[in-house]
Amino acid sequence: MSLSVDPSTPANGITPAPQQAQSGVPVIQIRDLHKSYGEQEVLKGVDLVAPRGHVIGLIGSSGSGKSTLLRCCNLLEDSQSGEVIFEGEPVAWTRSGAGRQPADRKQLRRLRTNLAMVFQQFNLWSHMTILQNVMEAPVTVLGHPPAEVETRARALLAKVGIGDKADAWPAQLSGGQQQRAAIARALCMQPKALLLDEPTSALDPELQQEVVRVIKDLAAEHRTMLLVTHDMRLAADVCDHVVFLHQGRIAEEGPPARIFGAPQTERLQQFLSATMAPRPDMSNASE
After folding, report:
1. Where are the domains of the chain?
2. Could you tell me if 187 and 136 are in contact, meaning their C-beta atoms sit under 8 angstroms apart?
3. DSSP conformation class of 160
4. I want to staple 248 with a disulfide (CB 3.0 to 4.6 A). Which of 44, 80, 124, 220 is the partner?
């Protein structure tokens, strides 16, 4: 099997995200981040940069710290030390070590609303229609006018290919449709970055491709995304930079052409051998 970087083009009607104008300041920076659960240290000094308009892929074995790193970026988890910086603004912390937590609740709320998370298990509200799910946070959290949000929500549902499901209930949708609704819900917040935590792993192969097409369209718009995935083809196709985590540390990172075509470390070679048969040949891919 050979993987190549796919220069996907947006589907008709998709326009570039206006918030992704070129800027020298990364959307997200992580510096020397440490995170533990009791005695178990999950992140052991991780550095990460997500430049504006880039897709950063996080790969690695289960338990390597990928999802924990994503949740620390979105401040859903409190780290014990290190810096989390959003568009040049460091998160303010109070106390240290196991007791460390964000010091400024207003800053925390503001940063979280600019970093939209898409989870593996969709997390749609079962008592709301798909349209209501997509509209809920912009209306109740951001205070945007419902009429304005409804127009945006319907456009986003059409954009991800389920415009005809606006009045359906989550239980009436397939897993792939629910995940696309979850992506539309995240986009409706008009975030500066999307954080996707294994968005296709709960789906069967046919439904995975529905979600993959949406992610490729978003990448082609140059949206800033952090993507945790076990799908190496997806990582190769959409990512500008791939980070391989092993036991809470970055073991190797670089452009997908090198990561998948010429891995430098023995551990990454072993990982790719186990997740691909055979390991991808990307010798002709452009870096």
Report:
1. 122-190
2. no
3. T
4. 44
